[in-house]
Amino acid sequence: MSKRKNPSDDNNLNSDFCDFLMELAEYEKNVSRNVHKYNAYRKAASVLATHSKRIESGDEAKKLSGIGDKISKKIDEFLQTGKLRKLENIHQDEDAQAINTLTRVTGVGPVKAAEFVRNGIKSIEDLRNNIDKLTHHQTIGVRYFEDFEKKIPRKEIQDIEGKLKNLIKNLDPEFTVTICGSYRRGKRESGDIDALVTHPSLKINEKKKKHEAKLMKSLVDALKGLVTDVISIGDTKFMYYCAILYFTGSDVFNKTMRAHALDKGFTLNEYALRPVGVTGVPGEPVQISSEEDVFDYIDYPYKTPEERNM
DNA sequence: CAGACTGCGCATCTCT
DNA sequence: AGAGATGCGC
DNA sequence: GTCTG
């Protein structure tokens, strides 16, 4: 549920560059509605963040994958003047700033934010005064706006993990619960809590739709004591180990691993690992019975969750 | 120089 | 009402 | 915006 990422963390020698690149990324996504530029800027910020040397010039930066002419020039401008004219202009654009603010509410994207601003709704407070114009999702986003932007301490997640497991065990002891995400990677705090729940009867394929639906419903009902609001309810079921791998991340690690899978003639997503035929058409999913299995199949050295912080 | 950049489930809107 | 499209989040 | 074919 976390909307913000931060390549400008710990010992990052290029954090000032990362900051303005991330700001440009947000602008492209929220205001220009160009998610590809957004990703391009984020990739550039990410590669600079993991670079072990302080970048001294645009030319030097340009050697890195993901940084081309335009960002190279921006780095030079920032090095010379300490700021970016493009960013200064954006700061002065009140509508752009308003759109950026509104998209921080979960459920409000670039299109809805622009529409709100067009209709004079330009702040979180404005949203709170127009609850009747919000979807269920957006209402929750506004109600917990401040909370959603806070990080969750590991200790707190451990508490919730305990309560969740206890609750679910009482419902049906065969349920298993795994908290994935950055928590599983050992981080001290997380932006959200990704809980993956499975039940043996869901693994026995098909012919169980009714039972499955009943289980899901009883699960959701049981969670009512712990969960205060429900944004959406689905009945999706996926291959457990691929899901646990995917939801543990990090996203950069996932991208690396998927690329490696392709090299080895497989396609990997959150549902399954499938061989890619010569025609390029994916075949039937490979039988997986552990996370390690996935690594084995694509001949990729096993990494513990803690080693997946990339 | 043109096209890719993951793509899918859910909620909600729009069309018929 | 039902099919399809759109916005959104991940 | 950057990379690839």
CATH superfamily placement of the largest domain: DNA polymerase beta, N-terminal domain-like
Strand/helix succession: HHHHHHHHHHEHEHEEHHHHEEH
Structural class per helix/strand content?
Answer: mainly alpha
Number of domains: 4
Q: Classify the helix fraction into a percent range.
A: 40-55%
Low-confidence stretches: 1-5
Give the biggest sheet: 2 strands, antiparallel
Cα gyration radius (Å): 22 Å
Strand order of the biggest β-sheet = 1-3
CATH architecture of the largest domain: Orthogonal Bundle
CATH class of the largest domain: Mainly Alpha
Portion of residues in beta strands equals 5-15%
Q: Tell me the span between the first and last alpha carbons.
A: 19 Å
Number of helices: 17
Average pLDDT value? 90
**Quaternary organisation of the protein chains:** single chain
Overall strand count: 6
CATH topology of the largest domain: DNA polymerase, domain 1
| Shape descriptor | globular
Keywords: Cytoplasm, DNA damage, DNA repair, DNA synthesis, DNA-binding, DNA-directed DNA polymerase, Magnesium, Metal-binding, Nucleotidyltransferase, Nucleus, Transferase
Protein name: DNA polymerase
Subcellular location: Nucleus
Family: Belongs to the DNA polymerase type-X family.
